[in-house]
Design brief:
The complex is a heterodimer of chains A (415) and B (116). Chain A is mostly helical. Chain A has 20 helices and no strands. In chain A, helix 1 packs antiparallel against helix 2, helix 10 packs antiparallel against helix 11 and helix 11 runs antiparallel to helix 13. In chain B, the strands form 2 sheets. Chain B has a 4-stranded antiparallel sheet with strand order 2-5-1-6, covered by helices on one side. In chain B, strands 3-4 form a two-stranded antiparallel ribbon. The chains are: A mainly alpha (415), B alpha+beta (116).
């Protein structure tokens, strides 16, 4: 085999790793019954692939091959360790006697495995601050560093939460199962929250050169569809609607040079009409429920934007109304900030500025870059150049994402 | 896997007739669990006014009146059960009458070798 062939296969393994590794992991958790064992098996499986595929060719069903290789490696490793610990011998025999997985595990079964894994990671017996990082790590394969940035935390803290959560799963024997129908509603909330955080990390990556990571958002939308299919709950529909409506603007949000394009400057012909149509239909479905939840309300806001031909022709009054309903459902300074932006569009920048200043004066959102960026924008539109400049600088202090930084720097220069 | 379900509640959380009913319902639950092979043992405890604490320090035994920890809620009883996993244990804990007045703490039992 030539070097280029080896390179080509190496690239193929890399790409399969990106798309398949977490699916393989979820199935390995089911087969092996343990997170750390499954993680180790996953890496052993990919190591084998790098070793064998260049010689033997890429198998017809790489996912099934990896699951089978990972399982085999894990049983092998347990057997080796069993020489020192007799109790492990029993475990190895038990795992082996469960039989080999079907050579091509059907896709549905594998999706079930991912769903099981999500519910395990979002179990109410786990501390709330561990559920989201654990899911992002185990289901989506984000690194501890990426999770730490998404949560404005430090990697060591996140790593500790994940380790503790995993030992609780092991010690208290939190099952690897989709909850019973009776427990589902209670368990769904945390799951939806996690899915939305995954989407957001993909839609506006918290740091780095790229503005968005389409793969993560795509992942979240896929998880959202899976959840809605399994649980036709209004909030599951609301969340999927919200994600689709936001996702529909992805292409328009970034210029060809990778720069951030604000909603008001976006070329609306670039919006994905198919996603908008699906998102609006799901919004209507979610809003028709007797009890309307926060995801449905956010989807309603996104749907008003999606229906508007331009910023000027947007029904800002309706948007402010939805924000009022949303604030009644969830008291959050970030929602208040977004409402302030909508009020500024309806009543002028001075009205928006007063609201943002009130939020900051209360001590909320002191280091949230968008609060300062909104303030800067209101001051700029009001001709308060010095104040705008100071606010843009403050926003820059807290912005880690390169395209967003460049956008703010450009605005600062234009003053 | 064995789980210890510890029932904590305020000592005056129930009046006498509620307490009687609680014993009746708990006994029924114990029988239901026995039928499905999940029962190991269960008992209510007398109030903390009857509690005695013992500790041994430097070879000396110290005996004092009262519970070890002064808290508002006290251990009022327990169920020791066999369950497949935490979800099953949670399901059973939710059926304990004491859970409606107090809190049931689920503790997985650590199995150690050579116990009688």
């Amino acid at each position: 085999m030539s070097d280029t062939d080896a390179d080509r296969i190496r690239a193929q393994v890399d790409s399969i790793y990106r798309t398949e590794s977490r699916r393989v992991f979820a199935t390995l958790v089911r087969l092996l019954g343990e997170f750390d064992l499954a993680e180790e098996a996953l890496h052993d499986a990919f190591a084998s692939a790098i070793d064998q595929w260049p010689r033997e060719g890429v198998p017809a069903n790489p996912r099934a091959w990896l699951v089978s290789a990972g399982r085999f490696k894990a049983i092998d490793a347990i057997r080796r360790r069993a020489r020192f610990d007799a109790s492990l011998g029993e475990l190895a025999e038990r795992l082996d006697s469960q039989g080999r997985p079907a050579p091509s595990p059907d896709d549905e079964r594998i999706e079930d495995d991912r769903l099981r894994l999500i519910f395990t990671c979002c179990h109410p017996a786990l501390p709330p601050d561990a559920r989201v990082p654990l899911t992002l790590r185990e289901v989506c394969g984000l690194t501890t560093e990426e999770i730490a940035r998404a949560f404005l935390s430090v990697p060591a803290t996140i790593a500790q939460r994940i380790v503790r959560a995993k030992s609780k799963i092991r010690e208290a024997r939190i099952p690897y199962e989709v909850p019973s129908r009776a427990d589902l509603p209670e368990r769904l909330d945390t799951v939806l929250h996690v899915v939305y955080l995954v989407f957001n990390e993909g839609y506006s990556a918290s740091s780095g050169e790229a503005l968005t990571r389409a793969d993560l958002s795509g992942e979240a939308i896929r998880l959202g569809r899976l959840l809605l299919e399994l649980l036709p709950e209004p909030e599951a529909a609301g969340l999927l609607a919200l994600m689709l409506l936001q996702e529909s603007r992805r292409v328009a949000r970034t210029s060809p040079a990778g720069e951030l394009v604000l909603l008001e400057d976006q070329d609306r012909t670039l919006w994905n009409r198919e996603q908008i149509a699906e998102g609006r239909a799901l919004t209507a479905q979610a809003l028709s429920a007797p009890q309307v939840g926060p995801y449905a309300l956010q989807a309603a806001i996104a749907a008003v934007h999606a229906a508007a031909p331009s910023t000027a022709e947007t029904d800002w009054g309706q948007i402010v109304g939805w924000y009022d309903a949303l604030l009644a459902a969830v008291l959050s300074p970030v929602v208040e900030l977004n409402r302030a932006v909508a009020v500024a569009m309806r009543d002028g920048p001075a009205a928006g500025l007063a609201l943002v200043d009130a939020i900051l004066a209360r001590g909320d959102l002191p280091d949230y870059h968008l609060a300062h960026a909104a303030r800067a924008d209101f001051c700029r539109r009001m001709g308060k150049t010095d104040e705008a400049r100071a606010a843009y600088r403050r926003a820059l202090e807290f912005t880690r994402q390169a395209p967003e930084r460049r956008f703010l720097e450009r605005r600062l220069e234009e003053l | 896997m064995k789980y210890m379900l510890l029932i904590y509640m305020g000592e005056n959380a129930m009046n006498d007739s509620e307490r009687e009913q609680c014993y009746v319902d708990s006994t029924q639950l114990a029988h239901d669990l026995k039928t499905s092979g999940k029962y190991i043992s269960a008992n209510p405890l007398l109030p903390v006014s009857s509690a005695t604490s013992v500790r041994v320090r430097e070879g000396k035994r110290l005996v004092t009146d009262g519970p070890f920890a002064e808290t508002r809620e006290h251990l009022g009883g327990y169920f020791l059960i066999e369950a497949a996993n935490l979800d099953e244990a949670i399901g059973i804990a939710g059926r304990i009458p004491g859970a409606r007045k107090g809190t049931v703490e689920i503790r997985p039992v650590l199995e150690i070798p050579n116990l009688p």
